Amino acid sequence: MMSKKQGPDARIVTTTALMAAVIFVVTFAVRIPMPIAAGGYLNIGDAAVYIAASLLGGPWGMLAAGAGSALADLSAGYAIYALPTAAVKGAMGLVCGRLMERAGFARFIVASIIGGAIMTGGYAAFDIALFNVNQALAGAPFNMIQWGCGVAVAAALYPAVERIRKGLGIRAGRK
């Protein structure tokens, strides 16, 4: 929705900001602290990341996912995770948004599963780099639970997401 002479369409910018806010609220409101040394928390914000990616596409989904998720970490007192979260969730939004450019429930689910793998691998890499392999191994089962819950919630909301997408009319690249 962007021409060479103009900036992005107001609908896409507004929807991106709105989805960043939704991701923040869903991530922040429902969080369960993980009982591991470095902390962190379980949440269902990944479902909102998948929905944002589906509605917005890759680059805009990346912005919404990275911003909303990082702000939730900052607000929840997990500042150490804010930048890695912005990168990991942004990558999820970008990849899922690109994969979801073609419509269909199966594609939505596959993209969401790949997004969860990005999240689990991304946080493991961060934990190894900042802490150690044991920390990454301790956090992996919790990230896998979050992965599965995020995909399940997003799948349950898929029919509503499709209705919203049609109403927004912002995905020009949709096939």
What is the gist of this entry?
By secondary structure, the chain is mainly alpha-helical. Helix content is 74%, strand content 3%.
Notes on the protein architecture:
- This protein has six helices and two strands.
- It is mostly helical and 175 residues long.
- The protein has one domain: Arp2/3 complex 21 kDa subunit ARPC3 (Orthogonal Bundle), CATH 1.10.1760.20.
- A hairpin with a 7-residue loop joins strand 1 and strand 2.
- Helix 4 packs antiparallel against helix 5.
- It is globular, with a radius of gyration of 16 Å.
How many helices? The count is 6
Strand content: under 5%
Taken from the alpha-carbon principal axes, the silhouette is globular
Radius of gyration: 16 Å
Instruction: Give me the strand/helix succession.
Output: HEEHHHHH
Q: Give the class from helix and strand content and strand pairing.
A: mainly alpha
CATH fold field value: Arp2/3 complex 21 kDa subunit ARPC3
Give the key terms.
74% helix; mainly alpha; Arp2/3 complex 21 kDa subunit ARPC3; two-stranded antiparallel sheet; 175 residues
